[in-house]
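Lab notebook: predicted structure, single chain.

Context: the supervisor wants predicted structures on file for every construct in the current expression panel, including those that have not yet been purified. This is the next one on the list. No modifications to the sequence; it matches the entry in the shared construct table.
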Amino acid sequence: MTNKDPKQNQRRQNTLLVRGGTRRSGHKETSEAIFLTSGFVYDSAEEAEARFKGEVEGYLYGRYANPTNTMLEQRLAALEGGGGVCRLAASGMAAVNAALMASVKAGDHIVAGKALFSSCRYIIETLLPKYGVEFTLVTGSNTQEWADAVKPNTKVFFAETPANPTLEVTDIKAISEIAHNAGARLILDNVFATPLLQKPFELGADVVVYSLTKHCDGQGRVLAGAIIGDEKWVTEELDPYLRHTGPAMSPFVAWVVLKGMETLSLRVDRMCDNAARLADLIGSHPAASFVRYPSRDDHPQKALAMSQMKKGGTIIAFEVKGGQEGAFKFLNGLEIVDISNNLGDAKSLATHPATTTHRSLEVAAQLELGVTPGLIRLSVGIEDIDDLLEDVKAALDGAL
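Prediction complete. Output recorded below exactly as produced.
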């Protein structure tokens, strides 16, 4: 395979989204090729031995690496900046699990923000303790709580920012300094901000994880995840975990995400613009108790959010008056926006976290996070803004 552009990692963002990592086979195809193969062959026994010893470059097995997957890994790493190395996983949660499991051992301690996707909470609160890993949950927006939670055995800080589903913002630079002073690694879930709106490595993060299902594919087609970190950690800690446990991404999925990323900038720009308009509508509607959108003046952490993010993002959180009954009236009144637990899609999607994505949490834990019975998470798509405004307004009117 040949690389037409040896300087591709120096290209600007929108060029990288279309061309980053592209390698062409001898057929010189325009679109990236899909290498649907589980294994690879060798010209001799000596070559096989040399490849397995790492003396000769080449692929070994689909669970380890694949040419199509490599293109996506290189595109993501170049887009993220910071000189990191990327590895893929079969889903966003597989990526989160791998990043955490490759970073801790029995007797270690994790500090994590309370406001997390429920599956992330499960790994930290339920799964890892089975293997002797301790944890402390803190208010993500309270930097002092992160500092106070540090123990001599703290090895990892884990955060989502903006957090799912309340859009709480964590000061990445501040907590990265606390983590590093404690000898710990900061793993950051950057899904809500996307790799376009927030650059965690520039703010001090050590590892960045993504559900590529959201935004990068962004068209409801595949499950996919990614982990980006420094080369030493990836090759010495992450690679052995991935190779031996096998959460490998299908090359077809990698190809779908490669195609999705070509339009990522166009979609995210439209989604952010639409979200800002919808947040203003919701914030002024009498059926809403409050709205949270990072670039609005009434977001309690607007200044911090806008110092870390280029735009307000694609997600809105708001509370409908009347609790669950009011929220359900709103959801059932939507005609264009779909009810779904997914997000980051080209289609606008609305979720009731208390009964879906965060239903596994106790009610007290939900309320502590701000997941009230009336809370709605709205993932804004690329539809015509006037249609979206009319649809959301009509649904809010119906919830009064």
